[in-house]
Amino acid sequence: MINKLKRFVSDESGATAIEYGLIATLIALAVIVAARTVGNNLGAQFNSIAGNLK
């Protein structure tokens, strides 16, 4: 029983999968934030150009 408990405590495969999942989530959030920021800035720039053309 103690051997099984030691193996369970030393098994890091689940922790590694969780870490990769967290990293992927953080990267996805960074991409979403960057895309929204660029999109908002680009939209404001187009609106400014359209206003100057009138």
Brief synopsis:
The protein has helices at 2-10, 13-53. It is mainly α.
Write the layout of secondary structure elements.
Blueprint: H1 2-10, H2 13-53
Portion of residues within helices: over 70%
Strand count = 0
Q: Any idea what the shape is?
A: rod-shaped
Uncertain stretches:
none
Query: Span between N and C termini?
Result: 80 Å
Radius of gyration: 24 Å
Structural class: mainly alpha
Listing every helix as H and every strand as E from the N terminus to the C terminus, the arrangement reads HH
- What is the overall pLDDT average? 89
For the biggest sheet, the summary is: none
Number of helices: 2
What percentage of amino acids are in beta strands? under 5%
Which features would summarize this protein structure in a list?
single chain; 54 residues; mainly alpha; 93% helix; 0% strand
Could you characterize what this model shows?
There is one protein chain. By secondary structure, this protein is mainly alpha-helical. It contains two helices and no strands. The longest helix is centred in the middle third of the chain and has 41 residues, at 13-53. The relative contact order is 0.06.
